[in-house]
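Worked example 2:
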Amino acid sequence: MKQLNVLIWMLLLVSVNLFAQQEKGIIGATNWLNNWTEFQPGKEYYREPTQIITGNITKDTKLYKRDTYLLIGSVFVTNESTLYIEPGTVILGDYDTKASLTISKGSKIVAEGTETDPIIFSSNKSVKKAGDWGGLILLGDAPLNKFGNGSVASFHSKLQPENYVNTNYGGNNSESSSGILKYVRIEYSGKRVRGAGYFNGLLLAGIGSETILENIMVTYTAGDAFEIWGGDITLNQAVSYKANSNDFKFNYGTQCRLNNSLAIRSPYISSSEGSRCLKVLSYDKREEVDFSKKSTFVVAKNITIFNDTENLEEDIEKGLVKEGVYVGQDAALDMNKSVISGFNPAVILDDRISINQGNLEKIKFTDMYFNNCNGNIFTAYNNNNDDLENWYGNAAFFNVYSKSSNKETFIDIENQRRPDYRLRINKIIAINKPEVDED
């Protein structure tokens, strides 16, 4: 009996230890990426369109799996109506007309796919590439920190005068709902718009906390994968795969909880302007912001951001690899139990952020796993990061540092169809203090 008790305690100790090692980065008893994600969308065949969607949707409408839909031009859901989309439905964005779908303020989308039958937005081109069509835009009436409200009119060329009102977002209802996005894939979006840059895969502007946003994958977008302006949202199990620009960008007073989510970057397709997995800003210009309103605050928990390169040093020398996380002035980030692997460096803070206790308490990195990065946390344009290393390297923050290879770090990144980016158990060597280069 005594031996049995010892064995039970040993098994419990091992199981707790395994869980502790696996709790950083994306988590799950099984690989939650299975079934609904697609890491090779160019090999997918979608049926020819059987229905066309164009103009404004002004009454409750349902899209069915039995049809394939072609989205033409700037389509708006208006008049407080709801667009329902059946699981398994495919909507193709038209290349020639820079197709996009905008859910206007007061209206809703209920796109609730399933793990085995996700809803798909993709390109109508036979040979698809990033930027083939616009993207998906949700506009709500939750607060932002700008003076007045905002508009996305600049994204829409040849906008009809009656639709300008349908491009507005922002208000005072932080608990509003713009509907449901669940088990949804958005592929090859990010069409370029003259004078306005690029569409994003998914733009959430002024979205309230009652909106459900879960299991959303944005793949090969020419703009930002997920862009959030203002609002108060929770985003669960979101995936950004090889976006040209940023994976998750927050701005204009966003209050966001980002949970159990993944961003995979490729150094060979990133924008030359510099692209990050997480870009946390409170504004672009100080003069457009009302500082009596909430600044951007992002809580990012169990996030894995990973730079997919076979030769990190060589790609860094070529200038292809940037930082994984960027935090702007007057923005706050609480990032914990997350993995940052393969960046140059892991984190950059805006050079206008004074390095003092008050500011650093607004930018938290705890229970982190920094792996194979060319430096950890720096202020922009400053190679001396001793103060930051001493602060975030304190044992009280429980951050660990490693130089493991990608294969050693993650369970199975070579499976092209069903990769597993959870941490590999028993392959992590925890170092309590960051390594400091002798030169």
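The two ends are 58 Å apart (CA to CA). The chain has a mean pLDDT of 90.
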